[in-house]
Amino acid sequence: MAETVAGTVQLQDSTRELPRWREGLRAYGLIAGMWIRSSMTYRASFVITVVGNLLVTGLDFVTILLMFSRVDSLGGWSLPEVAFLYGLSATAFGISDLVLGSMDVLGARIRDGSFDTLLVRPAPVLAQIGADRFALRRLGRITQGGLVLGYALLHIDVDWTVGKLLLVPVMLICGAAIFGALFVAGAAFQILAQDAAEVQNAFTYGGTTLLQYPPAVFGKDFVRGVTFMLPLAFVNWVPASYVLGRPYPLDLPPGAEFASPLVALVCCALAGLAWRAGLKSYRSTGS
Fold this sequence. Notes:
It is built from 13 helices and no strands. It is mostly helical.
């Protein structure tokens, strides 16, 4: 109890008279730092957990390697090209999962009533729930995705230009933002549904798995939905097709390959509106 009171006082002192966005960042940093210190108490256990996370997430790429042990290409894409898609998707999602992956605990907090305690603390609720149970072990996913991306960059046959080089970090940053928007929107839906973590996971974890494969292996109607309705294609499919010189299954307007920042901005704005609407509709547990 004393630690909880002390933590609340610390949040109140540190966030007083700060702009709202800085207040949220400060609160997020304090809460995440607390969980990091907790996880580093047993460092050997932490290292084992990170390595285990790296190996488990790496099984997805092992599946792709097994496919290529039987075929020379997948939808006309070579192994280094598919590895490029995989590395971009896994790394971008890993960054978002590290920062906001704890959003799926929101449903449990709503059911047991502990979400109410977040509403009365002097810090933005989104920062609190985003940093809740911050898991540094998720660095394993980022590391694994980065290793595959490094392999792909060394082996893909690309005539590199300045624009193509800049697109690689842009894809990672914007991809993380798009996945982050999905986490926030999914959390808002959990407020309305009382618990819908698996629905959220279908779009986040399911989305990153989808993007690890070339768009050419999916039907055009499906690709159209992932491009225009839920624009996950702008995480890697659209810009990566431009980098690799691969035709995209759909006819897109000129400049679409550079639209990832705009798509990420729109997704984040819509997710913010959804989050505000979710909070306004919250009526507690009723107990």
